[in-house]
Amino acid sequence: MAPLKVEQYVVGAVQTNCYFAVNEDTKETLIIDPGASAAKLEEILRDEKLNPVAILLTHGHFDHAGGAAELAESFGIPVYAHEKEQETLENPALNLSGWDGKQVQYHADVFVRDEQEIDLAGFHIRVFFTPGHTVGGCCYYFSYQNAVFSGDTLFAQSVGRTDFPKGSASTLISGIKEKLMTLPDDVTVYPGHNEVTTVGTERMYNPFL
Predict the structure, then answer these.
(1) Cα angle, residue 147 at apex, residues 180 and 51 outer, rounded to 5°
(2) How confident is the model at residue 101 (pLDDT cuts 50, 70, 90)?
(3) How crowded is the C-beta side of 2, counted as CA atoms within 13 Å?
(4) 178: Cβ–Cβ under 8 A, 6 or more apart, which residues?
(5) How far apart are CA 160 and CA 64, in angstroms?
(6) Which residues is 123 bridged to in the sheet?
(7) Residue 52: phi, psi to the nearest 5?
(8) For the chain, what is the mean pLDDT?
(9) How many CA atoms lie within 13 A of 69 on its CB side?
(10) Quick check: 188 and 148 in contact, CB under 8 A?
(11) Fewest C-beta in 10 Å: which of 3, 87, 133, 162?
(12) Are residues 18 and 40 in contact, defined by beta-carbon separation less than 8 angstroms?
């Protein structure tokens, strides 16, 4: 299995975690949730001689998708998102881009489905549809590397907000329990904000679950 190195960069006014999922053998890299600071992220990628092959969006809010188009154009790579998140990406009232000063439409090139398995950068990735924070939120599970990128679905001892347009607390909690809490305890959870955790830690200590 490909060795995974995860690089974490906090970007934008909302302090969003952008991750580089790097195949240490090939330097192929997946950019996960580049919400801002596209120029800085590009500089890091080029300085480290990494080879981006795709951008994965966990959901379409501005603080996760805001830098995707610029990076996609710079490296000629596709943007992935869940098929039910297209409206959120394209509707400024749903992607909350007005919070950042101007209303913007975002896009994805490839729309994935729940439980779809994709192979990118030498990694085998399983898509979990976990709506509730947004209607098309999802998580990306790297099964052979014991890692899941949870976006704003699951945080360390917390869960994503559900008071935004089309949010649903019951739907979010159900998705976490049905998808993420079935994973092994030692799976590392890389959330969209704040610190990294594990499935086992959240199973034991998360008050929302």
Answers:
(1) 135
(2) confident
(3) 22
(4) none
(5) 13
(6) 120
(7) -65, 135
(8) 97
(9) 10
(10) yes
(11) 3
(12) no
Collect all residues with Cβ–Cβ distance below 8 Å to 73 and sequence separation of at least 6: none
Q: Decide if 67 contacts 37 (C-beta within 8 A).
A: yes
Structure tokens at 59: 């959901």
- pLDDT-based confidence at residue 107 (cuts at 50, 70, 90): very high
CA-CA-CA-CA torsion sign (84, 90, 92, 95): positive
Q: Which amino acid is at 143?
A: S
Which residues contact residue 174 at a Cβ distance below 8 angstroms, ignoring those fewer than 6 apart? 132
Share of the chain above pLDDT 90, in %: 97
Place of tokens 């580089």: 20
Q: What band does 99 get if pLDDT is binned at 50, 70 and 90?
A: confident
CA dist 138 and 158 (Å) reads: 17
Three-state SS for the chain is CCCEEEEEEEECCCCEEEEEEEECCCCEEEEECCCCCHHHHHHHHHHCCCEEEEEECCCCCHHHHCCHHHHHHHHCCCEEEEHHHHHHHHCHHHHCHHHHCCCCCCCCCEEECCCCEEEECCEEEEEEECCCCCCCCEEEEEHHHCEEEEECCEECCEECCCCCCCCCHHHHHHHHHHHHCCCCCCCEEEECCCCCEEHHHHHHHCCCC
What is the distance in angstroms between the CA of the first residue and the CA of the last residue of the chain? 32
